[in-house]
Amino acid sequence: MCVCVSAVAYSRVSAVVISGSDNISLSNVSIHNIGGSAVTISGSHNSVSDSSVQYVGCTGISVDGGDIATLTASGNTILNNNIHQYAQRKRTYQPAVGFRGVGHQVINNTVGDAPHCGMLGGGNDVSTEPISAEIAKLRTRRYCTEIHASTAAM
């Protein structure tokens, strides 16, 4: 299912929350001036692509899915997004891209202009299990501008 919306703006709370859903695609959406998080997704085979996120109070895009106990991959994808000026209200631990679980792909995103981390996530042994998260071609600029003790911000 494709969500056909061109823009979501000027909200005091989170802009898009998709909970426990499968096969939802959010593409070519401009999300800006949001008090909470821009996009929060849980489920499997969901995607956020070719979208712009800026001036957000908390997290840019976050996904949760897959089964850590059985290592069943979620198949969620965050692809070709521009995420800037996030974590404007909650200044720490509100990444541009957040992920939790197994089998997410985070590919070709541009993130920046934030006080703390650019990407934050975890799952079942993310650093050594290739099925836990694929992170490729992440372009960054100007993050950790206020919290200098974050040694592993990206």
Distance between the termini: 32 Å
Say how many strands there are: 17
Whole-angstrom Rg: 14 Å
Largest sheet: 6 strands, parallel
Q: Which range does the strand content fall in?
A: over 45%
Low-confidence stretches: 125-133
User: Helix segment count?
Assistant: 0
Helix content estimate: under 10%
Number of discrete domains? 1
Question: Please, could you describe this protein's structure?
Answer:
The chain is mainly β. It has one domain (2-141). The protein contains no helices and 17 strands. It has strands at 2-3, 7-11, 16-22, 25-27, 30-34, 39-44, 47-49, 52-56, 61-65, 77-79, 82-84, 97-101, 104-107, 110-112, 119-123, 133-136, 139-141. Strands 1-4-7-10-13-16 form a six-stranded parallel beta sheet, with no helix packed on it. The chain has a six-stranded parallel beta sheet with strand order 2-5-8-11-14-17, with no helix packed on it. The radius of gyration is 14 Å and the shape is globular.
What secondary-structure arrangement, pairings included, does this model have?
Elements: E1 2-3, E2 7-11, E3 16-22, E4 25-27, E5 30-34, E6 39-44, E7 47-49, E8 52-56, E9 61-65, E10 77-79, E11 82-84, E12 97-101, E13 104-107, E14 110-112, E15 119-123, E16 133-136, E17 139-141
Parallel strand pairs: 1-4, 2-5, 3-6, 4-7, 5-8, 6-9, 7-10, 8-11, 9-12, 10-13, 11-14, 12-15, 13-16, 14-17
